[in-house]
Each structure stands twice: as C-alpha cells, then as structure tokens.
C-alpha cells in the first residue's frame, strides 16, 4: 500500500461486481468491500466469492496499487464473521472492518482468527489490520475508552457510525434543527476521536448519509479535519473527491510546516522557537512533520 494514511474510505457492496470493477476510478484511498449491511442474508455466500475474486485480482498489484483494500465482515454476534474471513483471507486484504464492535475482547477474538488465516495463506503475521466501528450499539459505545490501554497490535484506528445506534436506542433524530449532532452522537464522536489519538491510531469520522447533499458532505469533511480526524467514511463515489479535497493540506499549510521543520533543523537543541512572531514548540514540530509525511501517520500499537 502506497499510502499509510488513507483519508477517504469508500464502502462498496461485496455483491456488486460492477461497482467493485470501478473502484480504482473512484480515487478513494481505501476501499471497504462490504459483506455486512449492504448485502442481504441470502446473497452473502455469493458476495463472499465476489469479494475474494476481487481481492485476488488486486493482490497481484500489491506493489503498485494506490488503494488500500479493506473488508467489512459481519458482526461477531451474527456468527457469520468466521465464514467471511475463511472466504476472503486468501486475497490478503490490508484490513478488516469489524462492525458493532463491543470492546477489545471482540477485537482479540477476531485477531486470533485472522492470525490462523495468515498462517494458512502464507501472509506475514500482522499483515491484516483491524478497524472497529465502535458505536453501533449502546453497549459498544460505552466501551470506547477501553481501547486506549488494551493490548491489540492489529488495531489500525477507530471509527464510528450513527445510523445503527439511532435504531438501537430508538432515537428519532441524530441532528438538531441547526444540523449539528445531538448530545449522544456528539459525545460518541468526541470519545472516538480522543480514544484514537490517545492510542495513537487513525481517527476516522463517520459518513455523511445523504450522498446527494454535496455541500453538506463538504461541511462535514472540513469539520472532521478541523476537529482532528485523519479521514472520513464515504457511502458513494461522489463523496470521495469532496473528502480528499477537505483533508488535503493547503499550500499555505505546507509552507508553514516546511518553515517549522526548517526552523528546528537549524536549531536542533531548541525546545521552543519564534516563527513569524509566534512561539512554536515540539507539538508544532510533530504536527508539521506528520503533515509533510516525514513521520508515519499515527499508527503505533501498544
């Protein structure tokens, strides 16, 4: 994978060969082949085969492809997830999205199964990462802070969703009259963001549900980046360029980052410096280096 920091994450139904064939054209940094909500129960077996074939086809391009390949399997509670992994792991996906994740124990359960499949398929230990959806049930939402300290070497990031949770708790609204998240969803979003940064993994904001509302998607993506998220989910290809643009650093931001890095390079022993009339310190340097890609994106398993 050429990008260590995917910004746009596009869901594509695993039972749509036509849509999967168009995945490279979308410009998404990460494709999430979906075996869960977008696939009816009766179609899941066929969807697994389609997903496996697509992964196999792109596996051969592993050194040149620009898109990360992820698969959203079914939730642990469904009992379908093991069949999902058995079907798709030969295709060496970059990662597994785990929906309705209810804490680190479920992550470790899935990780143990992934390890067995890596061994069977000749994949390096740890090749396949895990990205849990941490908010889709009330129980799941209450476990978000537990991800900070638990040992989960495969954990790539944290993301959240509002649609399933609203149904689970019987909420008739997710946003207020001004279009802002209501308290429950704002709390979960903040918890996800803080836990991801505390753990030093990717913080991926939820999708904008109305793909026809391009202006709303732009505002959501810009807010996500401004708040500190490292990427955002997408439900439709039309959202991908909007998200990519929102998360791309501007020329002014790049110039400032270069100036910060240069200032500290010229003063290697300094902890604090002045730049253009303001004080800069080590957190500014860390942020600048990350923006310029000098440091890897924040993925450091505990």
TrEMBL record:
A Gene Ontology molecular function term of the record: lyase activity
Domain HpcH/HpaI aldolase/citrate lyase: 7-237
Cofactor: Mg(2+)
Alphabetized UniProt keyword annotations: Lyase, Magnesium, Metal-binding
InterPro entries: Aldolase/citrate-lyase_domain, Citrate_lyase_beta/mcl1/mcl2, Pyrv/PenolPyrv_kinase-like_dom, Pyrv_kinase-like_dom_sf
Superkingdom to which the source organism belongs: Bacteria
Pfam families with a match to the protein in the record: HpcH_HpaI (PF03328)
Gene3D superfamilies for this protein: Phosphoenolpyruvate-binding domains (3.20.20.60)
Homology family: Belongs to the HpcH/HpaI aldolase family.
Protein name as catalogued: CoA ester lyase
Originating organism: Novosphingobium cyanobacteriorum
């Amino acid at each position: 994978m050429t990008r260590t920091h995917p910004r746009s994450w596009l869901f594509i139904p695993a039972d749509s060969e036509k849509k999967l064939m168009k995945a490279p054209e979308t410009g998404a940094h990460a494709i999430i082949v979906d075996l869960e909500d977008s696939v009816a129960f009766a179609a899941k077996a066929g969807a697994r085969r389609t997903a496996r074939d697509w992964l196999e086809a792109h596996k051969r391009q592993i050194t040149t492809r620009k898109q990360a390949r992820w698969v959203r399997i079914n939730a642990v509670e469904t009992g379908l997830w093991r069949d999902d992994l058995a079907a798709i792991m030969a295709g060496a996906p970059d990662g597994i999205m785990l929906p309705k994740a209810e804490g680190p124990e479920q992550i470790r359960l899935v990780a143990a199964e992934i390890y067995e499949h890596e061994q069977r398929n000749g994949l390096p230990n740890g090749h396949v990462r895990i990205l849990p959806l941490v908010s889709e049930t009330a129980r799941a939402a209450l476990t978000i802070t537990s991800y900070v300290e638990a040992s989960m070497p495969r954990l790539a990031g944290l993301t959240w969703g509002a649609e399933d949770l609203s149904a689970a708790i019987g909420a008739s609204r997710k946003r207020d009259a001004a279009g802002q998240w209501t308290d429950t969803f704002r709390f979960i979003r903040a918890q996800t963001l803080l836990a991801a940064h505390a753990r030093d993994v990717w913080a991926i904001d939820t999708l904008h549900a109305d793909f026809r509302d391009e202006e709303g998607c732009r505002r959501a993506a810009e807010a996500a980046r401004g708040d500190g998220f490292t990427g955002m989910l997408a439900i439709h290809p039309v959202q991908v360029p909007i998200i990519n643009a929102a998360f791309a650093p501007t020329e002014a931001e790049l110039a400032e980052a270069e100036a910060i890095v240069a200032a500290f390079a010229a003063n290697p022993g300094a902890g604090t410096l002045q730049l253009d009339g303001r004080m800069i310190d080590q957190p500014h340097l860390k942020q600048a280096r990350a923006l310029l890609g000098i440091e890897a994106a924040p993925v450091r398993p505990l």
